[in-house]
Amino acid sequence: MDKEAIYYWNKTILILIMAIGISRVFFLTTVMGGHFDSLAEGNRVRRVRLDPIRGIIRDRNAKHLAMNIDYGGKTVRFYPGGEVVASIVGYLGKPDEIDLKDCLDCNAEATVGKAGLEKQYQEMLLGIPGMVTAQETASGQEKMEVARIESLPGENITTNVDLELQKLAYISLKNTLKETGKSGAVVVAKVNGEVLALVSSPSFDPNLFIPDGKRSDFGGDFKDVDSLIKDTEKKPLYNRAISGDYAPGSVFKLTPAIAALEEGKINKTSMIMDTGEIKIGEYRYGNWYLDKYGKTEGEIGIVKALARSNDIFFYKLGEALGVDALVSWSEKFGLGEKSGIDLPGESNGFVPTPYWKEKNIGEKWFLGNTYHFAIGQGDLMATPLQINRMTAEVVSGLSCSPRLVGKAECLDLRLNNKNIAIVLEGMKEACSPGGTAFPLFEYAGRIYCKTGTAQKGGKESLSNAWMSVVVPKGADTKEWIVITVLIEEGGEGSAVAAPVAKEILPYILDKL
């Protein structure tokens, strides 16, 4: 190859090398320049989330149910009422996938409401996070703030709860349960739906879920979260007031009483003979007075039947109404469906029907099933909150959804006031001498009540004890207050549940 050809090829190769080099520089600086600038910027700029201060939860008198305190140099959530308020406020915890999906402003490192009002009003309480953008060297030194967007604190919430009443109800219930070793619930609410107290026991200190948090003076029996979660016997995380399904027993008799009056099956002067027992084939349906004392009441009307909680009267009342009417009136008074309270985890309860029994159990509905239904037994199930609401509706003719926060709309059930007055007369007699609620006789004439004793299982287990008390606060029925007490396997409602209500009554009568 001559010199001229060698020169030509060398020139060509050089041009190609230069072209490749220029192309590479162009690619790195122009095409990929933005990418590398971003990488470099990423090494020097850091964004830090500013978590907002969580909103405060107060009672109706501005006393704290949930607040924020400086503890150990950190701002932490604190529940002064501890186990007393756990059934209302719930607790905080690390979010799971569902929490993150529902909470757009939450991240995996934040804490979110896991139960109670903390969960129900998570978005309101959370606030809006802020952001700090800081510039620093690759080694993380010489930080300089570039921009700051301050967080906005969460909204404060004022509830309908009366903290002093909540404490009184909880302590009274807890002391009673210490004697029985059982569990229970108390609900105190106005007819207008305002929930003044809502208690479930055994309970827990929600401060246990706050890392390095402060314990309440009402810290309870559990020392750490593990022991709390693992206790499958006491089930302290289970909110019995809104989630527990129980046979209501005789507190339910208010429903067939008003139903029979409204439908004209009976009136105030209608009489039924207390035979002590009814037998259908091999089955026996007895009255407590015969079974316990060997006595019968003779001819009785609706007022005395309520006062004495006479099962024979209500067996016959149920038969006169029929199962379809019992179902309809039960549903009218909110049984078998959620009440709509602003708390997560509420149960529907259960109202049995002939169709349900045949489909799920494979048996037809018999008259004996109607008898059991009419006295609040059998497959009928309700929560303490539902019984509280049912009682309020029967004595007022108003249906108001229970609320811990805010006011509720009320629906007029269009009940006859004369029929309501008859039921109230029977309830007044129940807590007067001669009635079943003997611990409350000192309040005779000032309150209305209904006792309940619901069989839970076989002879080896005691009955669930119930008590419902209506306190007429003034002429406006909406302001009347209903107390409902449940003691699981406590025995007789009059003997076990009524004393809890008795300890609560003075506060309601004198201070509310």
Short structural description:
With 512 residues, this protein is α+β, with helices and mostly antiparallel strands. The protein is built from 19 helices and 20 strands. The protein has helices spanning 3-31, 33-44, 86-89, 97-102, 116-120, 122-126, 163-180, 225-230, 240-243, 254-262, 288-293, 302-308, 311-321, 323-332, 354-360, 367-374, 384-396, 417-430, 493-511; strands spanning 45-50, 57-58, 64-71, 74-78, 92-93, 112-113, 130-135, 144-149, 157-158, 184-190, 195-201, 272-274, 277-280, 283-286, 298-300, 398-400, 410-412, 448-454, 464-471, 481-487.
The CATH architecture category of the largest domain equals 3-Layer(aba) Sandwich
**With helices defined by DSSP (H or I, 4 residues minimum), what is the helix count?**
19
Share in β-strands: 15-25%
Distance between the termini: 115 Å
How many DSSP-defined strands?
20
- Assign the CATH class of the largest domain: Alpha Beta
Give helix % range.
25-40%
Per CATH, the superfamily of the largest domain is DD-peptidase/beta-lactamase superfamily
Subcellular location: Cell membrane; Membrane
GO molecular function: penicillin binding; peptidoglycan L,D-transpeptidase activity
Domain Penicillin-binding protein transpeptidase: 185-505
Main location: membrane
